[in-house]
Amino acid sequence: QVQLVDSGGGLVQPGGSLRLSCAAFGLTLDYGAIGWFRQAPGKEREGVACINVSDGRTMYLDSVKGRFTISRDNAKNMAYLQMNSLKPEDTAVYYCVAPTCGVNPDDSWGQGTQVTVSS
Questions:
Q1: What is the pLDDT of residue 108?
Q2: What's the angle, vertex CA 44, arms to CA 2 and CA 107, rounded to 5?
Q3: Given CB 3.0 to 4.6 Å as the disulfide criterion, which of 6, 35, 58, 97 pairs with 113?
């Protein structure tokens, strides 16, 4: 059974940092792509970051460029989203997705982890 498990969310003050983790079970994160999405209350889910596993190319939502970094660890079969200089508008539930960045209806999604940026 394929399962992605998100973790690492929490409450952080503006300007703070968090690292989200995505652990994969029944699926190896060594092909295709891995992505992170988020959904804030009352808003549609949006793509935040995507990494192509074969060549390492990354794409980011404009509003997070320079602050967020997506990465993966093949040996641990995990992916990460390092989030720095967090802003209140980053508050959302974050989800990882594989083995494409949410373009395939058969993609696996994590259960989501809540990130709240507030003073």
A1: 94
A2: 20
A3: 6
